[in-house]
Write a structure and sequence with these properties.
By secondary structure, the chain is an alpha/beta fold. It is 41% helix and 14% strand. The protein is globular and about 50 Å long.
Amino acid sequence: MTVWIEGATGKAGRRVAEALTAAEVPIRAASRHPGKPTGSATPVRFDWYDKKTWAPAVGNAEAVFLKGLDSDDKAAAIITSFLATIPQVSHVVLMSAVGVDRTPDQAPRRAVELAVQNSGRRWTILRPSWFLQNFNEDEWVFAKALRENNELYAGSGKTRVGFTDTRDLADAAVKVLTEEGHEGGSYTITGPENLTFTEVAEVLAEASGRPIHHIDATEEEHRNHFARSGRPEAWVNHMLHLFSLVRAGVFSPLTNDFEHLTGKRPRTLKSYAYENWQPTNKS
């Protein structure tokens, strides 16, 4: 079996690609700027907005790992069209997010889930919480303010989040892609603890030896912060919507789905912090 991976150079897709390669599963590693072949990985160029790249990128893959188009209102239609061009694919694994199944059917991310479920293929959905790796890898969500100002910029109040390590998502993805019995299943992948952003700042400060503190931004402050990224307004609105879900407690619940799938305990914030925020690994 060959697996096609969307966003194979990004936070989540890169870990899925690495985990499948470690398991010696042939993969087609898709991105707009593919790298060099390594191990069982064949890099391929892919762009959601260039249909000519779709079928050639997927090639002979029989399974795909999708993460979708988070801030595009037409994402479901685009993904439906994409799946129609790759009839040889029998299993679709979608990375969605915690709580998406409780949103209205017309909400963009829920519409993507339904498009996959109604595609006529075998499907599995993975719903991770906020990624720990956002703190050091996502420049405009957290990393830039943390690196330059020792500020964890998050309008979250005292609400708790069950942060997910991307490596745990990857381990879960390997299981559902390579084992039978996960078709038609949905798994919510969280960490072992739910934490406030103030508590996250304290752990990052402890690991890094820096005076990191949580900025509980207002909606206007957050909009201005995200707007400085230069990214499209749709992305800014998407991020503000995600933080409204944080404040509503959508990302607070914890599950044992990861342990059920893999037989392992999920990684903790502290283990992530001491691997990535020690002084020799400053972000």
